[in-house]
Amino acid sequence: MLSYLHLELLQVLRNRQYLFFTLAVPVGFYLLWSSVFTGDRPDPVTGLAAPVDIMVSMASYGALGATLMTTGVRLAIERRSGWLRQLRVTPLRPGTVIVVKTLAAMSLGLPAVVLVGLASVVWQGVRLDLAQWIAITALLWLGTLPFAALGTMIGSLAGPDAAQPITVGAYFALAIGGGMWMPLSVLPQFVQDVAGWLPSTRFAELGRAVAAGHAPSATAGLVLTAWTLGLGALAVAAYRRASVTA
Amino acid sequence: MEAISVEGVAKSYGNVRAVESLSLRVPAGQVVAVLGPNGAGKSTTVGMMLGLIEPDAGRVEVFGKTPAEAGAAGFVGAMLQNGELAPNLTVREVVGFVRGLYPDPMPLDEVLELADLTDLAKRRTGRLSGGQAQRVRFAMAIAGAPKVLVLDEPTAALDVESRRTFWAGMRAYAAHGRTILFATHHLEEADENADRVVVVARGRIVADGTPAEIKQRAGGRAVRFTLGGQPAAGLERLPAVTTVEVDGDVATLHTADPDTVVAALYGTGLTVRDLEITTPALEDAFLSLTAANR
């Protein structure tokens, strides 16, 4: 199981697309937006100063992307290429495969969180307690679970050609609706209305709450848990179906 | 104990019956070729043995376990058709990983040596030629030193030289008393590499025996020589001769045992010239065998 996790991480870390989209883009955007949106006035929704708010947004954005891409697109490609079929004829079981893939996807969000955090410290002089950094990192790891489930579902149902645009579509929709690109306070009212129900909003809220110095709301935990259970059940069903016919 | 036991399995895809009540028992240590034309149901049968395909009826056991249990226990290694590898991992990483999944694997260097991959160990699998990738698939199949090796058309898309290397590696692996079952549509491959040949056509077994028996059933061999004006009478009475054909000045004696025929032929006092022993158009004979049960 550990050797498979190692193999999965190795494959993704050697992929230039991963490095670009999930590391370079969030860090680059952080440097850009935090330079554009200066000023000390805290955001009316999150109550955070811009450099901190954007840090959480971009860290969440990177983690979300890494998780969705490494599950959705990779799973679809591996199903088509026959690689998963080859693993099926080894002692590795399909259940282990999906547990490891989920763990790998969650963990591959971490580099973005750490790098964006570092950028905020170095570039904007953001200062948080060590406990806050640790809590943000841990929550933005655990909180990717519903997205790993969503990606697994997409990767089990769609072929590689379809999985790419579907995943990217879900990625951008969740990022925008979750207030990761722009603060929710500047988005249209109807987006703000649905935002509270989105896992991505609540995911980013985990980081924002800790950065603001308090625990995330119970509602955030409930919404994320509900999404995790719902998408998780669908993902398991879709993956089972896919691995029988694979 | 039987390594592989297949009992009356059947599998249909829609209206197409891929396999119909097929039964096969493979004792431990045997090397079996499942021979048949494309579409005969070989891959479906192999898929059911590996637990990749659920049979509609019947059951499959590998060392007394279901295919899934046997797979999880590390009894089975397999080489499938057309599977791509993980493109940004090296040969050594892929083979080493699969090897590590088995309880009692071969040393990695030995695996790479056997599959002729030592020089390619550090290459990423995405940069291999088709034949090289096929060798990696073979290495993955044997890396865990499984008791049962199942190969689905292992030499499809290989050139002649690669084929020779592949079968040399396969025979070296088989020499350790392991059970091997491979699917092929080449009679020569079955003949040269298997202890037993099971001929499959239209989802059923149409013949099952040693390679020599199968070839005999598929038409035997022919001893041909130039008569040079000598009489052909009496040739049909030579031992082991089944039929005699005379075409112009050339006599052809059909037989299952050319050694005996040739020995007897020199005993007749005839002047034998241009002697040749042929296995008449193996592929044709094989087609006639698979077509016979239509």
Automatic annotation (TrEMBL), chain A:
ABC-2 type transporter transmembrane domain location is 8-208
For this protein, the parts annotated as crossing the membrane are: 18-38, 58-77, 98-124, 130-154, 166-184, 218-239
What kind of membrane protein is this, topologically? Multi-pass membrane protein
User: Where can this protein be found?
Assistant: Membrane
Please give one Gene Ontology molecular function term for this protein. ABC-type transporter activity
The processes (GO biological process) annotated in the record are: response to antibiotic
Cellular component (GO) terms are:
ATP-binding cassette (ABC) transporter complex
Keywords annotated in UniProt: Antibiotic resistance, Membrane, Transmembrane, Transmembrane helix
| PANTHER family in the cross-refs | NODULATION PROTEIN J
Instruction: Provide the protein name.
Output: ABC transporter
UniProtKB/TrEMBL annotation, chain B:
GO function terms (MF aspect): ATP binding; ATP hydrolysis activity
Q: Which UniProt keywords apply?
A: Antibiotic resistance, ATP-binding, Nucleotide-binding, Transport
On whether rRNA processing is a keyword of this UniProt record, the answer is no
| PROSITE patterns named in the record | ABC_TRANSPORTER_1, ABC_TRANSPORTER_2
This protein's record includes keyword Transport: yes
Q: Look up and give the membrane topology term.
A: Peripheral membrane protein
Q: Where is the ABC transporter domain?
A: 4-227
Q: Which chain regions cross the lipid bilayer?
A: none
InterPro entries from the entry? Answer: AAA+_ATPase, ABC_transporter-like_ATP-bd, ABC_transporter-like_CS, ABC_transporter_ATP-binding, DrrA1/2-like_C, P-loop_NTPase
State its location(s): Cell membrane
Looking at the record's lineage, which domain of life comes first? Bacteria
Q: Which GO terms describe its biological process?
A: response to antibiotic
Write down the Pfam families for this protein, in alphabetical order.
ABC_tran (PF00005), DrrA1-3_C (PF13732)
Q: Which GO terms describe its cellular component?
A: plasma membrane
Q: What is this protein called?
A: Sulfate ABC transporter ATP-binding protein
